[in-house]
Specification:
five-stranded parallel β-sheet; disordered C terminus; about 45% helix; 21 helices; alpha/beta
Length: about 475
């Protein structure tokens, strides 16, 4: 490599490693822990490539990118960050960073991307750049709460693709197993895009079959986003109406996003998905990885869910070092949603601040002392459900000592019971909401509202066995 690289990071070890590696590769290196110093170097015309951390003692590296682009058009900036969320990737893309890598980064990969940036010699006009994305810094706090976190390459690749397609009009097909967060990805694309102030509408099969349904949906989602959950499961008539909706003229058409647990191409070959609909909706496919394909993200996800539980009134909890391994080894058929349920229950039932490996193993259904194991992996017990609930509630109160738990206990506990009850009932009825509502003894519209309010992803044809 030939050129001068400016390195800005508040971690001395990272500065030393990068300086040594880049120097050995033939580069000149200027390294600093200060954004102020970095900006002075840029203003003086130094450097052919910048490598910068995001969170620095004197500012935010991403916020400096517009100023760097103004002072030195075409100067490539590679962003590195330990904040491994979809927001970081999107903000890096919208700020027109040349590239983005999560920490801990792979040094050979960073060196390869630095060499590419040096060799391209980007023109002052910024050849090869895309237009800026939406202003992600105006996104509400709710977007930051999304559990779309991960430093694994499969998740980082997904983040980068989301950033690229977020503000396009092209239809999207989001694929992945149940519980991976397909609907969550769809919602985040809407909430982080230029359409964020416009409606986000989730279409139901009944809405599509009703005589005035398609017209009403198009009017409700006017200019916003229309989500079609599990599109291959829609009846033939509903699929035909979606095709006509997508072909309808108008300058305020919504963006169409569909989700599918099945491979869309395979569903089309099997006759479950209309060919004309497949070719219209599959403009770009986003494949959401299963949790078992990103096990290195499990500690990060657990920390996120424990923090969320604490913010909702649960005691402060953290995973012991040895307690992480059983979580990594578990197959997680229910993916991230199943992990969240397990972690949130551990937050309420753990006996001390540090969750032990024994408590994790018990939660995952590990056999102990010859105790029988249920079909879902959890130990069976002869005690009544009411006794088990009472025991856990008493432990929750005991954890607060002489203090009472935070207000809102009824809603928190009800949600802890209601969510798994509905999820398991849906699973056992193959995702059939009519059967599930009948099983639970509630109105189908009530069930639909609870699925939406509790953010439950409908599980199809999967039995808990």
């Amino acid at each position: 490599m030939d050129g001068t690289v400016l390195v800005a990071d508040d971690d001395r070890t990272i500065r030393t490693v990068l300086t040594q590696a880049l120097t050995r590769a033939g580069c000149k290196v200027h390294a600093t822990s200060s954004l102020t110093t970095l900006m002075r170097w840029v203003g003086e015309g130094k450097g052919d490539v910048v490598i910068s951390d995001v969170m620095m003692p004197d500012g935010n590296g991403l916020e400096m990118l517009p100023k760097i682009a103004e002072d030195r058009p075409g100067l490539p900036v590679i962003v590195i960050s330990a904040q491994n969320t979809i927001m970081t990737a999107i903000k890096a893309a919208e700020a027109e960073a040349y590239d983005y890598l999560p920490k801990p980064f792979d040094l050979p990969e960073l060196m390869k991307r630095t060499a590419k940036a040096l060799s391209e010699k980007r023109s002052p006009q910024g050849a090869g750049r895309t237009e800026p994305l939406s202003q992600a810094d105006t996104v509400g706090e709710s977007a930051e709460d999304l559990p779309l976190v991960g430093r694994t390459e499969v998740m980082q690749a997904l983040y980068r693709l989301v950033a690229r397609v977020m503000n396009t009009d092209i239809p999207l097909m989001i694929t992945g197993e149940s519980g991976t967060g397909k609907s969550l990805i769809a919602r985040s694309i809407h909430d982080l895009s230029d359409r964020r102030t416009l409606p986000f509408v989730r279409a139901e099969a009944a809405d599509l079959i009703a005589l005035d349904g398609p017209a009403r949906l198009l009017n409700e989602a006017r200019g916003g986003t229309l989500l079609l959950d599990e599109i291959a499961d829609l009846p033939e008539e509903a699929q035909a109406r979606v095709v006509r909706m997508m072909d309808a003229p108008g300058d305020r058409q919504p963006r169409f996003i569909a989700t599918s647990q099945e491979n869309p191409a395979a569903a089309m070959e099997a006759g479950k998905l209309r060919q004309d609909l497949y070719y219209r909706i599959s403009g770009t496919e986003l494949a959401v990885p299963a949790l078992r394909a990103r096990v290195d993200d499990i500690p990060l996800l657990c920390a996120h869910f424990l923090t969320r539980a604490e913010n909702e009134g649960a005691p402060h909890r953290q995973l012991g070092e040895t307690a992480r391994e059983p979580l990594r080894q578990f197959p997680w058929p229910g993916n991230v949603r199943q992990l969240e349920n397990v972690v949130r229950r551990l937050a309420l039932t753990a006996r001390s601040e540090e969750i032990t490996v024994e408590e994790v193993q018990s939660a995952l259904g590990a056999q102990s002392g010859g105790e029988p194991v249920a079909a879902g992996g959890a130990p069976l017990s002869t005690e009544k459900l009411s006794e088990s609930v009472a025991r856990h509630l008493q432990r929750y109160f005991d954890l607060h000592g002489d203090m009472l738990p935070p207000p809102g206990l009824y809603a928190r506990i009800l949600r802890e019971v209601e969510t798994p009850l509905i999820e398991i009932s849906l699973a056992m009825t193959g995702g059939n909401q009519a059967k599930c509502a009948d099983l639970l003894g509630i109105n189908r519209n009530t069930l639909r509202k609870k699925i939406t309010d509790l953010d439950i992803e409908v599980t199809r044809r999967r039995k808990l066995m």
